[in-house]
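Form 7-S
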Amino acid sequence: MDIIFLNEVKVQTRLGVPEWERMTPQTILLDIEIAYDLTNACKSDDVADTIDYGIVVNRIRQTLAENSFQLVEALAEHICQLILKEFGALSVKIKVAKPAILPGLKALGVIIERSR
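Output:
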């Protein structure tokens, strides 16, 4: 299986359990692995035979700007389902990190993996 990866994608979203935390967009970091058959793209050298990662990042930024989430788990699931359904990925693994949210903590988050 082939993997397209996007590391440390910075995005803005409204995220948090208390309502006040969701009032202002905050930066989160995403690491994304997208499983896709890249055989044709390797031969053709044509972006039409792969998933355009620029479009994926723009679509994620758009959906996160339009939605808010209480839990990083729900945000991660939302992104996985978006990539599976809209881009035809075979599977998606995503790490969502919410940096410096607690004193003395570099980041917190989740890693989930979903497939069709």
